Amino acid sequence: MASRTVCAKRHGPIRVTLPVSVASDLEKLERALANASQAVEERDRRSGWHGGFMQVREFVIDPASLEVTEAACPQ
Amino acid sequence: MPAVTAMRLPEVGVGVTWFAGMEPLLQANAELVDVLEIEPQTLWRRQPHARTVAIDTAALEAVQRQSHAKLVHSVGLPVGGTVPPQSDDVKLLSTVALELDTPWLSEHLSFNCVEDESGAWHTGSLLPPRQTLAGVEAAVASIRALSAWVPVPVAIETGVNYLQPRGDELPDGEFVGRVAEAADCGILLDLHNVWTNHQNGRQPLGDYIDQLPLERVWELHVAGGYYHRGFWRDGHSGEVPADVLELAARIVPRLVNLKAIIFELFPSHLPQLGARVFRSQMDSLHRVWDRRCGTAVRKTWVRSNPPEPNPAPSPKEWERTLACLTVHKRCDSPLATELRKDRGMAVIREMVEKLRGSMVVRTLRLSSRLIILERGTAYLEQLLATFWRTHPPQAFALDEAEAFAAFLREEKPYVPFLGEVLEYDRAVIAVALDGEERSIAFGADPLPLLRALGAGRRPTEITTGEFEIRLTPDLVNSQAVLPGMEVIH
Questions:
Q1: Which of A72, B92, B137, B466 could form a cystine bridge with A13, CB 3.0-4.6 A?
Q2: Which of A9, A25, A36 sits opposite B447 (nearest CB)?
Q3: What is the rounded end-to-end Cα distance, in angstroms, of chain B?
Q4: B463, A6: Cβ pair inside 8 Å?
């Protein structure tokens, strides 16, 4: 069995809002999560390091387009 | 009395079992499908966190939109045993019958529920009843209880039976005939079931047919099956065997009150069957349908004279023993010893377990994949086998999945991330069913984890941290997430 890579801990909680119509369709889920991963990586690249302070990042998946946007004021 | 009832029933023609998403097939075969047969339990949904069952109105409306005549064929409230159908379930059945304007409804002459000191429990399958005069009385009482609640006449379906025939029971055809006469109901003659029984060593077809009051047959079922481990199985899995079609062609002219012929097919087998073969099957059934004639050929049906009208075991003891053996509950009676030697017992168990396994795998989709990808298929099968030995079957996939999830939480098998993925699977179902938002916390990044599982790959690159998936309700076909009650029949 292939080994698993466990990477360093991300700083700050990440919350992804996923509509259940996407969650229940494995093909859509795969595409939506690929988009979400890309959005998280881009956000990390843009914002850089925050000195370990907690910072909630929230991403929302659109059920129709499966595109991912970052929520403006995450709670 | 039965002739009068039957005369009032409309001829609805040739049809097929309804399943969600079959609209294109119906459109392509519009002139060949007169009637849709609906299994009402496929429209029922167990409500999460409640012991109630409700009708999925979206699924019901999808059926109502079809212009075909509709027949309701119940698969979850059998009337062959000593435990009559429960009133809450019968109310749901009545609602569906009224909503779909079915001219009659049918149910199986089998049992699927037993009562003992632990209460009432589900057997996971429709099981054959005790075929004695006491068994006839029990079935008649159940049919009367059902008939008293529902707004349309009731027909009983002739069941499949993988057990070998017994010297102390009435022959199959005679048992059905006696029940139908005493309960004054119709008969849904499932020719594939009767043929399957014959193939597996039970009553010869000719004898069976001769023992039925044929004027009570309102409906025929035909289906396909397959051979497995020395038994022909009633699989609803494709083409109708040529022998069954030939039998149908021979018998239809004798069925003066025949109102419908239904081709039973499980949706998962349609791609394998193919549109062209489906069409040719429907075409064949129309040729069979055209062979009916309106003149009754009255024949006195054959009845045996049992030397011992009510031999032991009683219907109750029969049902409890068969149910216990089916679900691996402990049972040490002489009947249990006898039934354990019957090769048909292994077939019954295997079919129940296959259904239970499919309920778990289709409901806890990502969790099952995770277990298989991390530990292998054999390991999941081993977990399921242990689960089946300690937990009785559930009628609804939701209950079966919840019970298996609880079992996994207790067993704590070594499968990384299983706890979180289980919670995610459960939450997807719950949100789809009740429309309430749910959040699942993950200690590992759920994006690559769920993405890999969704694509059927083992998750290999995982980042630890604090994550949350918030599942929100939107328009979703709950049937795609969680099918209704599933029954082997």
A1: B466
A2: A36
A3: 29
A4: yes
Nearest to B462 among A6, A12, A23 (CB): A6
Task: Tell me if ipTM is over 0.85.
Answer: no
C-alpha of B211 from chain center: 26
Domain residue extents for chain B: 2-289, 343-481
User: Rounded CA gap, B484 and B489, in Å?
Assistant: 15
Q: How far is CA A12 from CA A5, A57, A58, B465, in A?
A: 21, 7, 11, 8
Confidence of residue B488 (pLDDT cuts 50, 70, 90): low
Domain over B2-289 is classified CATH 2.60.40.10: no
- Is B171 within 8 Å of B305 (Cβ atoms)? no
Lowest-confidence range among A58-62, B28-32, B484-488? B484-488
pLDDT higher for B434 or A8?
B434
Q: How far from chain centre, in Å, is Cα B336? A: 25
Residue spans per domain, chain A:
14-70
Over the stretch B54-94, which tens digit does the pLDDT of each residue have? 899 989 999 999 999 999 999 999 999 999 998 889 999 99
Contact B462 A40 (CB under 8 A): no
Q: Which residues from A are below 8 Å from B455, CB to CB?
A: 26, 30
Cβ neighbours around B267 below 10 Å, total: 15
Among B460, B461, B474, whose Cβ lies nearest the Cβ of A19?
A: B474
Q: How far apart are CA A4 and CA A12, in angstroms?
A: 23
Residues of B with CB below 8 A from A6's CB? Answer: 462-464
CA dist., res. B349 & res. B82, Å (int):
21
Picking from B393, B407, B406, the residue whose alpha carbon sits closest to that of residue B358 is: B393
Report CB contact under 8 Å: B460, A37: no
- B119 C-beta neighbours (distance < 10 Å), count: 7
Query: How many inter-chain contacts (A to B, CB under 8 Å) are there?
Result: 105
